[in-house]
Amino acid sequence: MEIIVAEHSGLCYGVRRALTTARRTRRAKPGQVASLGDLIHNPRVVADLAAEGIGSVETPDEARSGTVIIRSHGVAPDVFRRLRRRKIDIVDATCPIVQNIQHLVEALARRGRQVVIVGHRDHPETRGLLGYSRGRGVVVEDAAQARELPSRKARAVVAQSTYDLEAFEAAVGALVGKTRELTVHNTICDSTRTRQRAAAELAGRVDTMFIVGGKRSSNTARLYEISERVQPRTFFIENAGEITPDMLRGARTIGISGGASTPPEAIREAVEAIEQSFERNPTRE
Amino acid sequence: MEIIVAEHSGLCYGVRRALTTARRTRRAKPGQVASLGDLIHNPRVVADLAAEGIGSVETPDEARSGTVIIRSHGVAPDVFRRLRRRKIDIVDATCPIVQNIQHLVEALARRGRQVVIVGHRDHPETRGLLGYSRGRGVVVEDAAQARELPSRKARAVVAQSTYDLEAFEAAVGALVGKTRELTVHNTICDSTRTRQRAAAELAGRVDTMFIVGGKRSSNTARLYEISERVQPRTFFIENAGEITPDMLRGARTIGISGGASTPPEAIREAVEAIEQSFERNPTRE
């Protein structure tokens, strides 16, 4: 039995940076320190943070005092305004890559362009990007939704930074027939692309694949879809405790990958759980 | 038995204009009048033109005197230069829609952009467009070829005016993963789009479909592919003489469409041939 952890799996730069920022803020600031929404789509890390005194609030109005950390996904400009109005101290941990997309959306909208954002409608990054579009933005999740847009002389299209390239390509393809001049900004971040490519590659050479990460993490869900396309025997688990002997039946080569919000411990624990399961029951035919 | 001729089938504006221009030129000019390459991808019309004294030459150097007509597909700037050097009188019947694409390719290339042209590599329009790209053009015929291009920060993409929208969409989709900022100019002309849509729609409600046109006509071949995707019982014929009783066996509703270079007579004759075949043998079960 062999266990292979995908290259480029686990925490991305933006999420690592947000975690560091949050902990540094906790040390530096008195009073309440909370992120706006869970800092990271991973219940276990969220619990660790809460134990360290970094809580979370659901809405800007819930923050009564102290410091609010804007997580890596970023937020719409209106959220900053609402926090400032309430004299809340803001620490902005928006991923710099997402910030670039926000500025791009704003610049395109200022030039009068309709901006199509290909992303999950309810994902905080997408909602944030939409907030920068000055009312000229429209979100589509896939080619079918793109096909429903009316014809236009010109429009621009960007992607949620952690979206699946294949879905973005298909949505862009659908926009081509609807747009005379379409400017496509492929804003899927390198870290996402590299992670997705590595997971697909690994899924192709193992007989069982585990994707480890929070069920609410959009990019982890995409990673699961990508892996499952290549290797139908792919399991999406939130933590090592979910691994059952059934999942490992007949497995000889096992691949593991994790999303941008999956901490290294979670992957390490999955590896250990698989090893222990095999030690208990070496022949799983 | 019912025969339905597709709306928007047959000669497009650009080809009709080139034919009118050629005949007007023949009346106005003494000496040799020849098109550079067949004026239209239809052997029958080419023969008619020859009988009227409008011949064709294969290369600029073949033109020794008189007038050369540039056909609707257009040519590279270099061809104009070579003809001028030989003091040949030039009548330019390039389709105005193609001329717009030529100017677009030139403008994009002048701004330093790589220009991907999605079209048939050997099609005269595509070769002409490539000539306007100042060495920055590259032709791809489909998504597979687009996928082989190296990654780039920015590039632009245009289509041969008579290309299939679905193939263009797929090629653009493939470029998305290779390009940070991709400007997509959907230069497929309205006439092509309307014709393709009408043929697909008709193919969906008949049991037998005939696509009439020259075998060398790129847009007619595309029309055949589009129809055949919807109605596998599609026949590509150059003229009415090719219609056999076998093709009509069991047919109850028959559709007919023709490409941008298919003269109305060719479609009329196909209708007549089918009618006569049914009169000779009314029950074709």
What does this 3D model show about the protein?
By secondary structure, chain A is α/β, with parallel strands linked by helices. Helices cover 43% and strands 20% of the residues of chain A. Chain A contains eleven helices and twelve strands. In chain A, the strands form three sheets. A four-stranded parallel sheet of chain A has the order 1-12-10-11, sandwiched between helices. In chain A, strand 2, helix 2 and strand 3 (54-57) form a beta-alpha-beta unit. In chain A, helix 4 packs parallel to helix 5 and helix 8 (190-203) runs parallel beside helix 9 (218-230). The longest helix of chain A has 17 residues, at 264-280. The two termini of chain A are 12 Å apart. The model of chain A has no long low-confidence stretch (mean pLDDT 93). Chain A binds chain B through residues 165, 168-170, 172-174, 176-177, 179-186, 193, and chain B through 165, 168-170, 172-174, 176-177, 179-186. Strand 9 (179-185) of chain A pairs antiparallel with strand 9 of chain B, so a sheet runs across the interface.
The interface involving the most residues is between: A-B, 18 and 17 residues
Can you tell me the residue ranges of chain A where pLDDT is under 50 for at least 5 consecutive residues? none
Strand order within the widest sheet of chain A?
Answer: 1-12-10-11
The shape of chain A, in one word, is: flat
This entry's quaternary arrangement is homodimer
Helix and strand string of chain A, N-terminal first? Answer: EHEHEEHEHEHEHEHEHEHEHEH
Q: SS-based structural class of chain A?
A: alpha/beta
Beta-strand fraction estimate of chain A: 15-25%
